[in-house]
Specification:
The protein is of the alpha+beta class and 155 residues long. It has helices at residues 26-30, 55-62, 65-74, 105-118; strands spanning 3-8, 35-40, 78-89, 97-102, 120-130, 136-148.
C-alpha cells in the first residue's frame, strides 16, 4: 500500500487520556497520541505512469489521521467526521515523503469547549508531505466536523 510507517509518538500518549480506549483499528493498536508521523515511499504500488507518487497515494497517506486523532482524544462524548479537503500538488514526489501530524492538548480542549457551547464546530488542519531535503511536495487542508453528542447537528 506504500504507507511504510505510521508511527505514533510514544511520549505523552498516556497523558492524552487515551489509555483504556477501545483498540478497534490499526490506529488504536498504534496508540495514536499527540503526534503521528507518516512516511510514504515511492514503490511500484505508489508509482504513477510518469514515475512519481500517485496523487491518490499522497492523499490516502494523510486522509484519516486528524479525524482519528480527534476521535481518540475527544472520546465518545463527541461525533467527529471529515467534512472537506483541499489539496495542492506543489512538486512531484520522487522519493519517500513524510508528514507530521500534531494535536496539542490546548487545541483539543478548545474544540471540546466550543462544541459543548455551540453544539458543533469545524476546524481546519494543515498537512504537508515533504521530501528528505524538506521540500514541500503536497499540501492538504482537512476540515474536521465535531459535534457534541448531546447537541444538534448532522451525523
Amino acid at each position: 500500500d506504500g504507507v511504510r510507517g505510521v508511527d505514533a509518538a510514544a511520549p505523552g500518549a498516556a497523558a492524552d487520556g487515551l489509555e483504556g480506549r477501545p483498540e478497534s483499528s490499526v490506529f488504536g493498536q498504534l496508540g495514536i497520541g499527540r503526534e503521528v508521523r507518516v512516511r510514504l515511499a515511492l514503490t511500484w504500488r505508489t508509482r504513477n505512469y510518469v514515475g512519481t507518487i500517485f496523487g491518490g497515494s499522497l492523499y490516502g497517506a494523510v486522509d484519516p489521521i486528524y479525524m482519528v486523532m480527534l476521535i481518540r482524544a475527544l472520546g465518545p462524548e463527541f461525533v467527529v467526521w471529515d467534512q472537506a479537503a483541499a489539496i495542492r500538488f506543489l512538486r512531484p514526489g520522487r522519493s519517500t515523503l513524510q508528514a507530521t501530524f500534531r494535536l496539542e492538548p490546548e487545541a483539543v480542549a478548545a474544540i471540546a469547549a466550543d462544541a459543548r457551547a455551540q453544539g458543533r464546530v469545524t476546524r481546519d488542519f494543515e498537512i504537508e508531505l515533504v521530501d528528505a531535503e524538506g521540500r514541500v511536495c503536497f499540501t492538504c487542508t482537512k476540515t474536521i466536523f465535531v459535534r457534541h453528542a448531546s447537541g444538534s447537528g448532522r451525523d
